[in-house]
Specification:
single chain, alpha/beta, TIM Barrel, 10 helices, aldehyde-lyase activity, Aldolase_TIM
């Protein structure tokens, strides 16, 4: 099993109608938690870290641990740079040995997003590395009401994929990054249209806190990867607060195990909702 490209994993997910979890990690505890649950449930995994965390985390050390964990794993794992914004950040991920990178040009004009994504894809594919692009407006923290003009248009998406040659496309269909305030509304009809027009697997960002049925419906409508980050962080913090309230004198080693348990419980719930159990190739 071990280290594979994201392309291999998500193509299988689309073919067999499940979604692989794209779980972002930020330290050794979260890394261990996600990999252990994937192995326990025999689930393929996309293990990521976003570029914005580079200034908070010793990424050279953490990335080396991610590579080692993937190489040792009993399930297929792709290592993914999530939301890469700079050429330097993406080149770092390539040097670390990651098998997948995402260029997020969604804040750029369509023309500039296409131009930059196409160039990144050309470089990555020459090295056997998968690429994920993004189109449309994915809000943050539920603070913006997603309007029709923010949603991805099928013809635009098809043109983008055809010209950039990306392996996966993250699409805006009413989803939000971060913690939702109120009830999210996924435009499943638009997802279905995109699936019929775009011939690469689709990715759902802002996957935390949707209902189980919404995950199933999004998978049926074409989603092959669902990104999770916020809820893992919240689960870790909640477990930590609860434990400190009960045991203010708890030592740090004990608290690390509590954090890890919270993350594992969160990851397990999501994997069960994604229908990816026992799908390891």
């Amino acid at each position: 099993m071990a280290l594979v490209t994201m392309r291999e994993i998500i193509q299988d997910a689309r073919k067999r109608m499940y979604a692989v979890g794209g779980f972002n990690v930020f330290n050794f505890e979260t890394l261990g938690a996600v990999v252990e649950v994937a192995e326990e449930l025999k689930s393929p995994l996309v293990l990521g870290i976003p570029e914005r965390l580079f200034k908070f985390v010793d990424v050279d050390t953490l990335s080396a641990a991610m590579v080692r964990a993937a190489q040792k794993a009993s399930v297929p794992i792709a290592l993914h740079l999530d939301h890469g914004y700079t050429y330097e950040g993406m080149m770092k991920a390539i040097r670390w040995g990651f098998t997948s990178i995402m260029f997020d040009g969604s804040s750029l004009s369509f023309t500039e997003n296409l131009k930059r994504t196409k160039e990144i894809t050309r470089i990555a594919h020459s090295l056997g590395i998968s690429v994920e692009g993004e189109l449309g407006y994915v809000g943050c923290c539920g603070t913006v009401d997603i309007q029709e003009e923010n949603l991805v248009q099928p013809a635009t998406a098809a043109d983008f994929v055809d010209k950039t040659k990306v392996d996966a496309l993250a699409v805006a269909v009413g989803n939000n990054h971060g913690t939702y305030r109120g009830n999210p509304h996924l435009h499943l009809g638009r997802l279905t249209e995109l699936t019929g027009t775009v011939h690469v697997p689709l990715v759902l960002h802002g996957g935390s806190k949707l209902k189980k049925e919404e995950y199933r419906q999004s998978i049926q409508s074409g989603i092959a990867k669902i990104n999770i980050a916020t809820d893992m962080s919240l689960a870790a913090a909640e477990n930590l607060k609860n434990e400190l309230a009960k045991s203010p004198g708890a030592n740090y080693i004990h608290l690390m195990s509590i954090v890890k348990k919270g993350v594992k419980d969160s990851v397990r719930r999501y994997m069960l909702s994604f229908d990816c159990i026992s799908k390891a190739i």
